[in-house]
Fold:
Amino acid sequence: MGPGMNARGEVVDSTKVEAGYGQPVKGLRDWEGEITGKAAPGSKFTQLQIGMPMRQVTDLVGQPSDQGAYITGKAFIPFFFGSDTHRQELVYKNHGRLIFAGGSMGDFGSAHLVWIIHNANEPPYR
Structure:
């Protein structure tokens, strides 16, 4: 198992989880993403699909308990014009985290879901 996970494949510390240790998924409109950890019974995240726009996700699962944004390493590649230069992270207490890519800084409405991190013990804040 990967960092932040136990031997049963459950996420125990979302802050330590790294990409590449979850299940790769091809989602809506050919968006590629990852699902890490195991969904808790009754989790809101089971109705989500990789590639969903952020607005659709928040309509389905509600507003997060916390959120933040960060720049990826691709932002520093000269002449890189792709969409994965920054990410938006939504935290849901007792459910996990949702990571979105795309959109533009300040306008995350057009961002799409690329990573679902299931964590039944997720604290309410980053």
Q: What stands out?
A: The chain has a mean pLDDT of 87.
